[in-house]
Each structure stands twice: as C-alpha cells, then as structure tokens.
# Entry
Amino acid sequence: MSNKLKSVIVGVVSLFAIGALYWGTKFLSGEGNPFKDKRVFYAYYDDIAGLTEGNSVTIKGYKVGTVTQIYFDKERDNHLKVVMNIEDDIQIPLNTEAKIVSLDLMGTKGISLILSDDTDMAPSGSQLNSSISKSLQEQVDAQILPLKDKAEELIGSMDSVMMIVTAVLNKDVRESLSKSLVSLDQTFTTLSETMLVVDKIVKDNQENINTTLSAFSSVSENLKSSNEEINNILTNFSSLSDSLAKADIVSTLSKIDEITNKINRSEGSLGQLINDKELYKNFKSASKELKELIEDMKLHPERYVNFSIIGTPNKPYKEPKSE
# Structure
C-alpha cells in the first residue's frame, strides 16, 4: 500500500473521529442531535433557582430543547438571561411561558414550556414569558407546616393536661377531693332519708289524698255535665249576635239622629216646645201661680168654700203678702 493511500485513510478516519467526538460532546451536553435544525428563544429571570446550562427544555414532560446559555444582562438591570435551543419542528405560540421547575427529587432543574392559546407562532429569537415554580422543599414545607402547627397545639394541650394531672396528684388537692366526695356521700344519704320521710307522710295521709282526688274527680264530672248547658248559653249568645248583626241598627241610629237634628232646629211640635223660650217662661209663670194658689187654698179655704145659710156675701180675694 502506497504512502499516499495510507495518508488518505488516516485523514478520513481522523475526520470521522473528530465528527464523532463533536456529536458525542453535544449529545452528552444535552443538546440532542447537533445536526437537527433548531431555533433560539430566551427569557429573563430574577432568580433561576439552580438552573444550569445543559438542563432540559420540555413540553408536558417531553424534551424539546436544551438550555444553552445563562448570563447576566447589564442592559436589563443584571437580570439573568436564559437562552434555549428548541427543535425546529416544535411550534411555539406567542405568549408562551417558560417556567423553571424541579424535574426530580434530587432537585434537578429544567424549563417547562406552557403553551398559550395564541394562534400566532413566535419566530426564532423571540422572548418568552418567565416564571418559576416552588421548589420541592417549599412544597413539602407548605404541606408539613400546618401539621407542625397542629402538633405544637397538641403538645401545648398535653402540657395543660399534665399540669392538671400534677395538680390533682398534689397531696392537698387529693385531701380536698376526698372531703368533697365525703360531703357528696352525706348529701345523698340526707336525700335518701328525706325520701323515706316523704314516703311515710304519703302513706299516713293516703285516705286524705284519695278523698281530695275524689273531690277533684267530682268537680270534673260536674264540669262535664255542665258542658251541655254552657254550649246552650253559647248558642244563645251566637243567635243574639246573629240577630244584632241582621238588625238595621245603622238605619235606626240614623233616624234617631235625624229626629234630634229636627228638634235642635225647632222643627215640629216637640222642637218648638223644647226650643221656644217664651213658652218656657209661660210654663214657669203658670207653675208659680199654681203653686201660690194651692198654698192660698191651704191657708184660707174659706175663700173658696162657703157654707153660710144666711147668705153672707163672698169676701173679695186678697193677694197674700209675700214673706
């Protein structure tokens, strides 16, 4: 084999080895297939929570790209700029969110793309919205913290119970409880004796009690027998009420009111008799004269009755002097 052919073979093998090394390096760095077309997107973060270059970019858990570059952008107040390479056949809508998430329990970070509903697609080089999810530790803390608070409350309650138990086990408290129990037992004994006395009183007065109950029974029977009479009375009242309701009381009152008004207006004989002042004065004068006549007849009857046989002439009438 000539030296020229050997040189060609060595060159081809070297190029193949260099290509394989390049492809292997890219593959191991997380960039996937280096020969596949890709697009570039980026997002800004205040904190990347441990995200590093080479971490995966996923959609619904499926890897579609890689984080290729992270650096501080002085033009954006030193916000961290994260550059992502995403496969060309994956369509990314506008307003898609690049969210930093934990990929496993070891805390490995990655970016999960949350696709928007926008119908327009973002071109290569576009900026995506950014967000960061809580770490696994923060999520665990959020679940454990309420349990921790409840455990602390339980421990506090147990401490209170232990204090009460300790107080109960105190010698003075035990003696006080013993005295209270003795007093309670004496109270029950007194109640029992009282019940015996009451029972004896009831037995001794059983006849009187029976008599009283019989009297109550008789009263009840009397009330029961009087029930019919009460019903009759109520029925009569009901009939009277119906009669009053049917009577034309309003019309009668109206007629009485009309008669009263006529009397007040001096209409008719009764109205003139009541309202005529002259007639009233004449009645008063006549009444006075009649009274004087009767008094004079009582004092001087001889003026009105004359039994003289001889025929003595009648005496003239003299008006009595007023006293």
Q: What stands out?
A: The first strand starts at residue 38 and ends at 45. The CA atoms of residues 266 and 272 lie 5 Å apart. The beta strands are 38-45, 56-59, 62-73, 79-87, 97-102, 109-114, 129-132.
